[in-house]
Amino acid sequence: MKENKRQRIYKTIMLVVVVAIVTFVVTSIINYDGSIRYIISGKTEADISQKINTAVSAITKIIEEKYIGDIDKNILVEGALKGMVASIGDRYTEYYTKEELDDFTTSTLGNYVGVGIYMQADLTNNTITVLYPIAGSPAEEAGIKSGDKILKVDGVEYKAEELTELSDYIKGEEGTTVTLTIEREGNVSDVVVTRKQVHINYVEGKMLEDNIGYISISTFDEGCTNDFLDAYNKLKDEGLKSLIIDLRDNGGGLVDEALGITELICDKNDVMLITVDKDNKKEVTKSKSDPTITVPIVMLTNKYSASASEIVAAALKENEKAEIVGEKTFGKGVIQELVNLSNGGALKVTTSEYYTPKENKINEVGITPDYEVTGANEQLEKAKEVVKNK
C-alpha cells in the first residue's frame, strides 16, 4: 500500500526553507505542458515574454561574440531561470534544475548516500545552520548537533544563499569523507564525516514510563500517516494510556500527510485547515471521520517546528485535542506547489497562505505553546507531567 502511495502524483507542499543533504520533502508535482500564464502588474504574458526573450537574446549574442571563455548554454539557461524566479523576492519560491528535482524526488523514498543532515539557511546572519542530524546517520555518529553552524566544507566557505551548492557538494560516493567546519557556541572545529547510505525513519515510537506513548515525527513524507498509525497501534498493544507527539525540529512536508494525522485525532467536521489563495478564495478543510485516537495528547514544539508541523499543532490545539509544551513555532504559514516543466526542471511557487481553524495567522507569527519551556530534556519532562494530569 505504501509503495502504491509513493507512485501517485503529489498535491501540495509546505516546508521551511530547509535543504537536507537531500531535500527532505516532495509535494505537488503537477504535469505541466504549457507556459505559465499569469498577469503581473497589468502586463500580459505576451508583453513579459517578449521583453524577456529580447533581453536574453541580446545578452546571449554579446556573450557569444565577446566572452573569451568556454560557454555552456545549458548553464546559461538554468542561471537565467533561477535568477528570474529569485527576483520575485519570495524565499519559498524557487526553480529546480532536473538534477535538483531528481534529488528532491529521491529523498521521499527515505534512502540516499550522504552524511545525513537537515539544514536551513539563516538569512539574518547569512549562515547555514544544522536543523538536526538524522538518527543513526554519519553526521550524528560524528557528533554534529542541532544549531551547529556549518562555516566551511573541505575548506571552502559557504553562506546562506549557497545552501543548495553546499548540499550538492556534501552528497557523494559511499565511503568517501568530507570535512565540515562547525561553529558551536563560539567554538570552531573541524569534523570529518564518512558518507554512507542513510535510511530515514520519519516516524519513531516508544513507550515511556506510566504507559505514556511517545511518537516523534521528523518530517511529513509520503506514507507518514500510515507509519504514525502503525506506531500508535503498536504502542496501544503495549498498553498505551496517553500520548506525546514530538514535532520538534520538524520543518514541514506534505500537507495531505499532516492532515491525515490530524484527522486521526480530530472529531468529525472539526476544521483542520483554512487556506486563502491569491484571489482571496478561502478553502476550509474539515475532518471527515470520527477520531481513531482518543487518549490524552501533548505535543512538543520548538522554534524549528514549521509549516506542516504548524498545521497539526494549530488544529489539535484549537480543537482542544492536545496541549503544546515547548517553544513558539517557526511561523511558516504559506503553501507551495511544485510544477513540472518541459525541460525536466520544476518551479516551486507559493500559491496560498494558511490559517488556524480559528482563522489566526501563522505566517511570520508562529504558534505559542500552552507551556513555554526551553531545553530538550526539560520540555519532555514537562510534557510527561502535563499528559499524566489530563
Q: Assign the CATH superfamily of the domain at 203-336 and 351-388.
A: 2-enoyl-CoA Hydratase, Chain A, domain 1
Report the span from N to C terminus: 35 Å
Overall pLDDT metric: 85
Largest sheet: 7 strands, antiparallel
Which CATH class of the domain at 203-336 and 351-388 is shown? Alpha Beta
Using the 3D structure, state the CATH architecture of the domain at 203-336 and 351-388: Alpha-Beta Complex
* Rg value: 22 Å
From the spread of the alpha carbons, the general shape counts as globular
Can you count the helices?
10
Low-confidence stretches: 1-44
Summing up helix and strand content along with how strands pair, one would put the structural category as alpha+beta
Task: Give me the secondary-structure topology.
Blueprint: H1 2-6, E1 13-15, E2 18-20, E3 29-30, H2 45-66, H3 73-86, E4 94-96, H4 98-106, E5 111-114, E6 117-122, E7 127-133, H5 138-141, E8 149-153, E9 156-157, H6 163-170, E10 177-184, E11 187-194, E12 196-199, E13 203-207, E14 212-217, H7 224-237, E15 242-246, E16 252-254, H8 255-263, E17 271-277, E18 282-286, E19 297-301, H9 308-318, E20 323-326, E21 334-340, E22 346-355, E23 371-372, H10 376-388
Parallel strand pairs: 3-21, 14-15, 15-19, 19-20, 20-23
Antiparallel strand pairs: 1-16, 2-6, 4-22, 5-12, 6-7, 7-8, 8-9, 8-10, 10-11, 13-14, 17-18, 17-22, 21-22
